[in-house]
Amino acid sequence: MKLLFELLGKHSVSGDESEVSQVIINYAKKRMKSWKVQPEIYFGEDFHDCILFKFGKPRTAVFAHIDTIGFMTRYQNQLVPVGGPEILSGTRLVGKDSKGEISCQLMEEEEVCFHDFPRGIDRGTRLSFEQNIRVDDKFIQAAYLDNRLGIYNALKLCETLDNGWVVFSTYEEHGGGSIPFLLRFIQNNSPVNQALISDITWITEGIHHHEGVVISIRDKFIPRKKFMDRLISLAEKSGIPFQLEVESYGGSDGREVQFSPYAIDWCFIGAAEDNVHTPNEKVSLFDLDSMLRMYQYLMNEL
Amino acid sequence: MKLLFELLGKHSVSGDESEVSQVIINYAKKRMKSWKVQPEIYFGEDFHDCILFKFGKPRTAVFAHIDTIGFMTRYQNQLVPVGGPEILSGTRLVGKDSKGEISCQLMEEEEVCFHDFPRGIDRGTRLSFEQNIRVDDKFIQAAYLDNRLGIYNALKLCETLDNGWVVFSTYEEHGGGSIPFLLRFIQNNSPVNQALISDITWITEGIHHHEGVVISIRDKFIPRKKFMDRLISLAEKSGIPFQLEVESYGGSDGREVQFSPYAIDWCFIGAAEDNVHTPNEKVSLFDLDSMLRMYQYLMNEL
Amino acid sequence: MKLLFELLGKHSVSGDESEVSQVIINYAKKRMKSWKVQPEIYFGEDFHDCILFKFGKPRTAVFAHIDTIGFMTRYQNQLVPVGGPEILSGTRLVGKDSKGEISCQLMEEEEVCFHDFPRGIDRGTRLSFEQNIRVDDKFIQAAYLDNRLGIYNALKLCETLDNGWVVFSTYEEHGGGSIPFLLRFIQNNSPVNQALISDITWITEGIHHHEGVVISIRDKFIPRKKFMDRLISLAEKSGIPFQLEVESYGGSDGREVQFSPYAIDWCFIGAAEDNVHTPNEKVSLFDLDSMLRMYQYLMNEL
């Protein structure tokens, strides 16, 4: 889990994903010799801070977003959210501007957010939750498991993957915007008709810790029934524990696959977390393990 | 109206449109020999559950969505809407899951929807309004006239069409998602710069039964004035009864034509209904007749 | 400022931008011989009412929207907004329908808008704010400075521009829809990876008159940090006065660049105004001057 700890230590608020992007590139360069298949890697300014790995002859693309929610400084000591962070007064925030390192508290009054840093902070500075990783034999708890675990899953998948795209996207937490150009590149290079979204979902009245990876039948958007039927029947055959989710809210990179100019089926598959979009996101290690195994299984079978 | 009754008898909640898709394909295969022009037909997994007919050298594409609003089972006996159905306690719903046929009542308490089916229903099962078709000499009344009438109009148009695309889209009731790939296919195959949306709109204080098909000057989105001026002046020349609609809400497949990467003018043209998105949608047969005639006229003249 | 006055005198409510489009074409035809570089000009029905100028070998595209907010007549004496105009009872509105010129007052009761014109107005007629241009030595005040000033800036830029696209878009005030096809044309003809949005923003607690052009670090959407860092450092080097904006609401043509299928960095740069979307929009001439100079500087340096 050294990789996961390294990922959890980086800042990557939407629009500023270069640090995590670099970690992924460095990790791949160091480790890919031990991977079963050597992928072609696409990254750099033409791809903004996104990365694509192409293994063999892809039928399916896996998308893991590398950005996180957070805050941005406005005027005086105001903060505006990036994505949808939980607003809990007292939460520790960290960042950096032209004058140096920043560590402060989040405060809220009458639905406006502030920080308590003694000096002014440059306009437009991104602040992240202070990281605090806790692992025991049942759970991992930290800020930004959403979506460091999705990245981790995608990178572990690379070790054994024969055929498929593994794609690291940006901006997912703040409305998206990278999936359209990534999909265009994929479809022009080596097209697919299936996509899996490697991301983290929610513990709810129907989704519980330790009951396996979540396969989402819908969130705000709805994947195609024919594809879901096939995928769920494969999941059943796999013997890997999984739970079926039905939500009316929430979205993922799947939304932009749905609205893309390509007929690509998609499905969100990922472990569920408590304390969503807080510094205390909490995921069952059992569910994470099911996630890793389910991706390896499905990428072979789909 | 045998075709219309057959269409009204099928379930096709967004994301699960294969039954209606099959009815359309079967109908076309059986009837197209009597059509004036033999179209090229595109369908199958590459098009998900959508279908495209190409007649001659198209200048205009007609879009009719084949999905409907409905419900999906969540956890326990909860239901979540698909699209925007009217929530009326007591409404009869039908569907099917792994354990068999389902017939139950919709119930609402504190803005949460439930069903009263005595056994649990598989998560993610789609439920439709129970169908009850009523026709007299003035009106047709049934569930899902929106958009079975739009499909019916598009298929009747095929009988006499010389040039044009007739396209059956999915997901319209739930945010869309098929128009982008359909348009890309059209523009790469035989491009158009005009689109008509064959769909059903609303009776309002300005739109009345028996006053003709509705030509919509705007809903939430606004077609280009130059195109509307030309289209309305043709409609006036046609002698076919029509009404002009101006709304600030509502959308259609036209929305995705508007936001597509092609300069395509579009307009919504269709009969108006009462009791929108209930099992009792009601349309004037006179207005339906104007709709059929207006499409035949405009597809020649535009 | 004759050009600006001419632009301010035209009506161009979203979806009906042909008048302003014509002014731009006529101006360019008359003046382009004195421009440093002769652009290629693309316009006409294939581009709806949009216009593109290509200068040299573009690295960056400038977008200025040519539409404005306004109203559309509905049934009886009702009005529905186009875009988001401020609703102030008593505001003078003007327009034209099949029966002739219209001049009336806007009235609001219980969140519904009406007009007081003595005769009925054709359904779907667009009404604009009555124009009243006021200039002193510090300010210009008028209806529709948003975005006549953005157009003016783009056209002044043409005089000295070596390399770049200058693009006039439609529909920006009402959800957009022209940027996708304009971008597709640009990327197929002479692609860019940078875009500047020539538009007008808001005076707020952090943005003041006479303090220079506004460079927006974010509105509802967020440009990429790497690009903003480079752009702001250039702006600092320029010596031209500028202010940094951080907002959580509002959008521009930048939104559609963000969600396009191309990896194009973008930034909104424009003067700020008071009395947004009223007939009394007010912009500092000092800020307008900084805007003109900043575009000339950045289009060279980026």
Automatic annotation (TrEMBL), chains A, B, C:
Could you tell me which species this protein originates from?
Algoriphagus lacus
GO molecular function per UniProt = aminopeptidase activity; metal ion binding
Q: Does the keyword RNA-binding apply?
A: no
Task: List the lineage, top down.
Answer: Bacteria, Pseudomonadati, Bacteroidota, Cytophagia, Cytophagales
Which Pfam families does the UniProt record give? Peptidase_M42
What name is this protein filed under? Aminopeptidase
State whether keyword Transferase applies: no
* PANTHER family in alphabetical order: AMINOPEPTIDASE, AMINOPEPTIDASE YHFE-RELATED
Gene Ontology annotations of biological process type: proteolysis
